[in-house]
Amino acid sequence: MFSILSAFIVVVVAILFFTCVRIVPQQSVFVVERLGKFNGALEAGLHLLVPFIDRVAYKIPLQEIPLQTSSQTAITKDNVTITLDAVLYYQVTNPRAAAYGTSDFQTAIEVLAQTTLRSEVGKLELDKLLEERQSINAAVVSALDRAGVEWGVKCLRYEVKDLVPPQNLMAAMQLQLVAE
């Protein structure tokens, strides 16, 4: 009887121990809630939580994250429809804002990057667009940095990878090149 009770106590203590000890990996932050309210952010290392009261609500990476935005079409100032592919590099700077500033900060920055890119493309003609990728990249980074403050995110870089005009326009450009 005594051995069963002591075995039960050992099992309960072991379960409590494993539910209250958290190891946070390097370059990560765990956002902890106590009874549903923000309690703190745990940085890398060993931490103790109060069982059944504290819980890890979010696990947020702190390293630079590349985000491939989906391919999108945009219309230039001279009414040419082009297809764009881009990649965004961002980093979480404020875990609390990233957890509670928006329901999904990754989707929010992706959508903002896409809408800003379409807006910037609409301001330029196709010839200028092909020449001024850097200014477009800088405009998108600037817009993301302004909004990212509330989301706890810093945009490090934005790169337009591919800029593809329509097939018929490509053929016309090729014919003009051959004629010259």
UniProtKB/TrEMBL annotation:
* Endpoints of the signal sequence: none
Tree of life domain: Eukaryota
Supply one GO CC term from the record: plasma membrane
Under Pfam families, the record lists:
Band_7
SMART domains documented for this protein: PHB (SM00244)
Q: Which residues form the Band domain?
A: 19-177
Name the InterPro entries on file.
Answer: Band7/mec-2_domain, Band_7, Band_7/SPFH_dom_sf, Stomatin_HflK_fam
Q: Please state which protein family the record places this protein in.
A: Belongs to the band 7/mec-2 family.
PANTHER family linked to this entry: STOMATIN-LIKE PROTEIN 2, MITOCHONDRIAL
Protein name as catalogued:
Erythrocyte band 7 integral membrane protein, putative
